[in-house]
């Protein structure tokens, strides 16, 4: 490896570490890292390093979200990917139902996407004022993914949002404010959903209908 390449890798080591930990790099979660990967020269240096350990840079959201994937797939790599895909599929129904609730509760025309803010207090007020939304939230919060046992709207919605931050779908820039920002991991989720729809021939509605009681607590 040339001295220039070594210097470039040292400068992007933290970014490489985040990629290898499975983090999704987008403008919302890491603007500096996102700008670095948007640069062809920096991306090439990172790609060269990752290729040495059978990794590669993947992208979603029309090239606005970056993550780490495998360059070549052997048995062990397939097992890891299969496990990751299974985790996403198991979380799919609660996540889709939550996305629908946010879209309907916020009165938005389009699904939540990277960089869009969700004001929890405003959403909570609308949910509390609408019986159908309260019922939806209760159902969503009791999925195993979130694990709420509360019957209180305030406790349910805060637990759901806290868990979504932990899972990387939301970020909360200011701990003093109840404002959450959607991350690029949501855009990746949409691509997974499209892939499932195309390969399985199932619409999201059909998938929701096939949910079983085991998905609930």
TrEMBL record:
Instruction: Report the Pfam families cross-referenced here.
Output: MksE (PF21980)
- Note the InterPro entries from the entry: MksE (IPR053841)
Protein name (database record): DUF4194 domain-containing protein
User: What organism, scientifically named, is this protein from?
Assistant: Shewanella sairae
């Amino acid at each position: 490896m040339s001295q220039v390449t070594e210097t470039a890798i040292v400068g992007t080591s933290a970014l490489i570490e985040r990629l290898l930990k499975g983090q999704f790099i987008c403008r919302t979660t890491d603007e500096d890292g996102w700008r670095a990967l948007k640069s062809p020269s920096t991306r090439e240096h990172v790609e060269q390093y990752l290729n040495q350990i059978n990794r590669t840079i993947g992208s979603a959201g029309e090239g606005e979200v970056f993550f780490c994937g495998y360059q070549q797939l052997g048995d062990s790599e397939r097992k890891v990917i299969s496990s990751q895909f299974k985790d996403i599929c198991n979380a799919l129904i609660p996540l889709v139902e939550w996305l629908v609730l946010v879209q309907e509760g916020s009165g938005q025309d389009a699904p939540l996407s990277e960089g869009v803010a969700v004001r929890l207090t405003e959403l909570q007020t609308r949910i509390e004022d609408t019986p159908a939304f309260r019922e939806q939230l209760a159902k969503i919060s009791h999925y195993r993914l979130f694990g709420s046992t509360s019957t209180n709207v305030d406790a349910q919605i805060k637990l759901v949002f806290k868990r979504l931050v932990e899972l990387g779908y939301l970020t909360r820039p200011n701990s003093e404010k109840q404002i959450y920002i959607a991350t690029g991991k949501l855009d990746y989720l949409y691509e997974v959903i499209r892939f499932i729809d195309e390969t399985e021939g199932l619409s999201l509605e059909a998938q929701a209908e096939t949910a079983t009681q085991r998905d609930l607590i």
